[in-house]
Design brief:
It is built from nine helices and seven strands, in the order αβαβαβαβαβαβαααβ. With about 260 residues, it is α/β, with parallel strands linked by helices. Keywords: Oxidoreductase.
Length: about 260
């Protein structure tokens, strides 16, 4: 096999992606479909799921609140049945959580962020790992963390706490699952252009009492390349980690962020 072939994920991979009806997850799903994978996505938004299914007729879909363990278990059972097994798990689902000083953050919002961003990863892992151990086709787990999982993020403490925890989970699980030939990595997106990032910038601008444009410029000044990344940049890294070229990459937290220097 030559180097170029190593960069191509094997056709027919069976892929489950959480939170994938829009944004980064949708871009990852599309990328895997384009290389001939069989893809199952779930999302909490039934309207978005329906739109995704109509855009991609080959896509398998389910609706679930990933903070609910029973709903996650149902999704994994359904995905295993429809895909005939599982080779790749992309733990992508997450929410931005509240913005504000820690003493002002509502306890319910804190708990919701932890449940959606962190507990959900465990719920998927608990059920999916035994299935991944059954495949010999370069099985791997890719967890979506954030640049906020390697840098402090003032006024976004619930979000940052979950993303740091995901990195710890990945590094520990890579050691645990390595003897079973299951690789585990985290991707740390930086400032990803799009509606979600616009909402984050707007909320933080309000918390700090400055304009949206001023807050956006402050974000860009913190990035060495002075630009945001796109969902397709993140999807490309996901394909690489799932390809034969990534077969010896495990336990890593890989930033796709233009080198964010601080938050």
């Amino acid at each position: 096999m030559n180097t170029i072939d190593l960069l191509k994920p094997a056709p027919g991979l069976r892929v489950l992606i959480s939170g994938a009806a829009a944004g980064i997850g949708a871009a990852i799903a599309q990328a895997f479909l384009e290389v001939g994978a069989h893809v199952y996505i779930c999302d909490v938004d039934p309207v978005a799921v329906d739109k995704a299914a109509r855009r991609h007729p080959r896509l398998h879909t389910g609706i679930a609140d990933v903070a609910d363990r029973e709903q996650v278990e149902r999704i994994i059972d359904d995905a295993r049945t429809k895909l005939g097994g599982l080779d790749i798990l992309v733990n992508n689902a997450g929410i931005a959580g509240p913005t504000g000083a820690v003493e002002d953050i509502d306890a319910e919002q804190w708990e919701r962020t932890i449940s959606t961003n962190l507990n959900s990863q465990y719920y998927f892992l608990r059920k999916a790992v035994p299935v991944l151990k059954e495949t010999s086709d370069n099985p791997c787990i890719i967890a979506m963390a954030s640049v906020a999982g390697r840098l402090g993020y003032p006024f976004r403490t619930p979000y940052a706490a979950t993303k740091w925890a995901i990195v710890g989970l990945v590094k520990s699980l890579a050691i645990e699952l390595g003897p079973s030939n299951v690789r585990v990595n985290a991707i740390l997106p930086g400032v990803v252009e799009g509606e979600r990032m616009d909402r984050v910038i707007s909320a933080r601008a309000e918390a700090l009492g400055i304009s949206f444009d001023q807050m956006k410029e402050e974000y860009l000044e913190k990035i060495s390349l002075r630009r945001m990344v796109t969902v397709h940049d993140v999807a490309a890294m996901t394909l690489f980690l799932a390809s034969p070229a990534g077969r010896n990459i495990s336990g890593q937290a890989i930033s796709v962020d233009g080198n964010v220097e601080y938050l």
